[in-house]
Amino acid sequence: MTTTLHHAPVVTLRSLLHTSKTPTTTKRGKSTTRTVREVIKRGVLVSFAPATYTASILILEATSTYLQNIPIANHVDGTSAVYGALCAVLFFDEQNLSDAVVIAMYPNGAQGIPVPAPGRVVFVTGFQQVNGSTINSGTTSNFQITGNGGIPTGALGIVYAANFTSPTTGTYIQIGPHGATLSNYQALGNLEVANSFLNANGIVQLDSNGKIDIRANSGNCTVSLYTQGYIQ
User: Fold this and answer.
1) Which domains does the chain have, with CATH numbers?
2) Among 99, 93, 98, which Cα is nearest to 34's?
3) Which one is predicted more confidently, 34 or 44?
4) Which of 227, 223, 50 is nearest to 155 (CA)?
5) Where would you tag: which of 8, 97, 103, 171 has the fewest CB atoms within 10 A of its CB?
6) Following DSSP, what letter does each residue of 172-206 receive, concatenated?
7) pTM above the 0.70 mark?
């Protein structure tokens, strides 16, 4: 495998974190001590085994070393443990290459970049984004979500709860990112009893400006929507 680095030349990282003296015994029975040093070294991820949360790593040094079955920190997942990514490996004892853990993953030039970008859910206090908005049958309305209720600019999606009512049975609404083909996203309904309410919750993407579209179908609908979190 050929790895191209687009930053500083590859060097052995001797970031000393801790040293201690470990008693050892020589073949002649004499007691001595050995200095145990913790170091961080840079490597390239070769493979990730999610079942055991271990990895195979190519250590970047003057003489490259290939290590197998090295544990990975629990905050790393399959979306970031991408083949070819650079990684930081903490060795608790630099003389014992099996006593180590992968503590971070990061891009290796154009390699090792998750596509699409991974996201995480952040919960916020519930907030009413849409308050009883009437949407006529066959009409699509758009709503600005980011910037309101703790949903920040740049959020990729929202955790929401929605409800609607209609004087017409069989109505339903569609929800999706603004400008998207709504049939590819979410539909809530059909309403079985006229003037009753249908409640639902879910996760939906936002467009690049933080907006969603809601479309009413088969009848006029009065819609409310609340956000309780976002994906970033």
Assistant:
1) 18-106 (2.40.50.230), 121-231 (2.60.120.1340)
2) 93
3) 44
4) 227
5) 8
6) EEEEEETTS-GGGSEEEE--SSTT-EEEEEEEEE-
7) no
